[in-house]
Amino acid sequence: MKKAIVLFSLLLSVSGFAQTDVSGYVPGKSQDAVTYFLPKTIIEVEVEATKVTYTPGEFCKYADRYLRLTGISDRESSYWEISKVTVKPVGMPDPDNVYSVKLKDKTIAPLMELTEDGIIKSINKPVEKKTGKKAAETSQQQKTKINPRDFMTEEILMASSSAKMAELVAKEIYNIRDSKNAIIRGQADNMPKDGEAMKLMLANLEAQEAAMLEMFTGTTDRETKKYTLRLVPNKDLNKQVLFRFSKKLGVVANDDLSGAPVYVTLNNLNTVPAPDEKAKSEKKKMEGIVYNVPGKAQLTIFNSNKTYYDGTLPITQFGNQETLADNLFNKKTTTQVTFDPVTGGLVRIERGNE
Question: Phi and psi dihedrals of 73, rounded to 5?
């Protein structure tokens, strides 16, 4: 996701020392101040589902007779499967935690870097210049299907029955395999001149063999779809239905009983002491930069047969809040602070004297 950076240059000339006032944001009254958000945690779950479609080959009934291939189905089939489940925490601006840093004539107010959404990222950190190089774009090339009839001889095409045609195609497959073995052993009548020519010749023979073999084994096509689900973890969750999954339809809604439930369980690990209720209920003036101390939770995504994810995630809502002392930003020090824009937690403090 492309993010813009908003910079507020707030370095003022100083004739003395004063506190940096931080208070709760009041619309229309937080003038001469920089306003920033603290994030709340959103759990983003990406489900990758794949539709598998099997189409039987033209000569599937003769696979065992001529190629000794057993278990080849002669019926079309289609089903969905969950191929991957990935989980990541995402930081979203919390409208209940907006703060303003008031500017004063006798204050060293910080240079603040915010995300595009206004979440605090850093204080007094040098802005990293973008190199201007574009990320390499990866293009997925669709595999071109080879028509096996392009390799059929006149004898095969003129065969009087499907059984005879299948027999001749099977013989052609065996001939291709003999040719590959002769080239690899150096016994072919027309050996390639160098290694690259040998690779090219072998690749062509393998493509022909695979195309003709599919006339017996059939083809399997895969179509992948991605679904993004979001959870706002405000409390523990015990075996809550995250989504439903059907082998015929893929991912379906929670209330669609055609699919079997996939559950989510979330347990607060209580790694951070609960915040004081009085402090939570009162929006009072604070002396310092407010930041989050995120807690942790155990997240499990599963169904009756399989566990798709089991791990620990940082959860802002299960944590607390603290403040950075305002004397970190007085005229005698140059303090650099880095925050995690996903959790609002403190990442690093680097303090140096001027």
Answer: -80, 145
The answer to whether the beta carbons of residues 300 and 264 sit under 8 Å apart is yes
- 3-class DSSP state for residue 92? strand
Residue 8 in this model has a pLDDT that exceeds 90: no
Alpha helices in the chain (DSSP H): 63-67, 154-157, 162-185, 195-217, 277-281
Higher pLDDT pick, 216 / 101: 216
Residue 85 CA to residue 288 CA, distance in Å, equals: 41
Give the CA distances from residue 1 to residues 90, 115, 222, in Å, rounded to whole numbers and listed in that order. Answer: 12, 12, 27
Please name the residue that has the structure tokens 């607390």.
320
Radius of gyration (Cα) for the chain, nearest Å?
32
Of 77, 40, 73, 50, nearest to 318 (Cα)? 40
Of the chain, the percentage scoring pLDDT greater than 90 comes to: 55
Distance, C-alpha 203 to centroid of its chain: 34
This prediction has a pTM of 0.75
Confidence at residue 112, expressed as pLDDT on a 0 to 100 scale: 81
Spatial separation of the C-alpha atoms in residues 311 and 145, rounded to whole Å: 41
Least confident of 2-16, 155-169, 238-252: 2-16
